Amino acid sequence: MKLKLLLGTLLFSAATAQAQLATINENFDSFTTGTATAWPQNNWSKVQSGAGPWVYADGTTDKHVQYYSFMSSNTAAYLISPQIVAPDGTKTLTYKSSLTAGSAAGSTGTVQVGLVNGVTAGDMASFTPVGSINNLTSAETTYSITIPSSSQQYIAFRIIGSIQHTAIQIDDVTYAASSLAVSDNVKSSDRDIKFAVNTENTELLFVTKKEVKNIQVYAANGQKAAEGKLNNQRFDISQLQTGVYYMIVETLDGSVTKTKFIKR
Questions:
Q1: pLDDT tens-place string over residues 21-44
Q2: In terms of CB atoms within 10 Å, which of 115, 174, 192, 194 comes out highest?
Q3: Residue pLDDT, tens place only, 207-264
Q4: Residue 85: left (phi > 0), alpha (psi -120 to 50), or beta?
Q5: How far is the C-alpha of 130 from the C-alpha of 147, rounded, in Å?
Q6: pLDDT tens per residue across span 164-202
Q7: Do 117 and 234 belong together in one domain?
Q8: Which contiguous run of DSSP H or E holds residue 10?
Q9: 69 and 134 share a domain?
Q10: 124 against 244, higher pLDDT
Q11: In the chain, how many domains are there?
């Protein structure tokens, strides 16, 4: 009997350890849709109110998670990830979000990512924000946020609609090795891509051994701030606000350089 109990304990411990995910890649297509569907689904959880807001899976061939404020306004509901291995600061969370067509006229909405201790309503008091609040539009936007080192092991999306009948969707959530974890400006002579900010802080000046195909610039909160091609080995940053930006430079041969710069 003692041996059986010991084996049971070991098996339970192993199952618990396996439940802690090192990465996440969720498009919600396997979820059952509808407001009455039981959760958790695929180890994802939610915290909502009976009178609204609601959180549920929606869609047909391309499903997503839907927030609907229903009869409530400026009230948070939460979408909570499966338990992850304690973050060590090397991974990035990426997701897509937008206001959806079902929103009432004049609706606005926000999503903020944070870490929490668990999946119950009481656990939401432990919400520790990661990055800034993202103000949504009707255009689906991709957000990327580096998750810092923490002992908290659940990622929570705090979703708020401004008025009654605000609809917000979240889709294509990934949590993996950071694609924007980059070093300081590329300066060493053995690199194929070198650049500098001009004295007016309006352009990036490039010296390259390879032809640049495309440049993407991301703000510190992970939102894309600019994208385009070089013009006479220059890239316009005059419209960017002051701050730290991450940059991905893709060349014609398919190589990618990841770096950052400061707009003053």
A1: 999 999 999 999 999 999 999 999
A2: 115
A3: 888 889 999 998 876 778 899 999 999 999 999 988 888 888 888 887 788 888 888 8
A4: beta
A5: 7
A6: 999 999 999 999 875 444 443 433 333 568 888 998 999
A7: no
A8: helix 2-19
A9: yes
A10: 124
A11: 2
Range of the domain at 70: 24-177
Beta pairing, strands 224-228 & 91-99:
unpaired
For residue 37, what pLDDT is reported?
96
Rg (CA), the chain: 22
Strands (E), 6-53: 24-26, 45-47
Identify the H or E element spanning 18.
helix 2-19
Instruction: Output the pTM of the full model.
Output: 0.66
Q: Which of 94, 93, 91, 155 is nearest to 128 (CA)?
A: 155
- Contact 192/138 with Cβ under 8 angstroms? no
Which are the contacts of 243, defined by CB distance < 8 A and separation ≥ 6?
A: 219, 220, 262, 263
Cα 161 from Cα 26, distance rounded (Å): 23
What is the enclosing helix (H) or strand (E) of 87? none
In a domain, 3, yes or no: no
For residue 238, tell me if it sits in a domain: yes
Distance CA 101, CA 104 (A): 8
Burial of 141 from C-beta contacts in 10 A (0-12 / 13-18 / 19+): middle
The answer to whether residues 152 and 239 belong to one domain is no
What mean pLDDT comes out for the span 1-29? 62
Average pLDDT over residues 77-85: 97
Mean pLDDT in the chain? 86
Q: Cis (ω within 30 of 0) for the bond into 53?
A: yes
DSSP category for residue 71: T
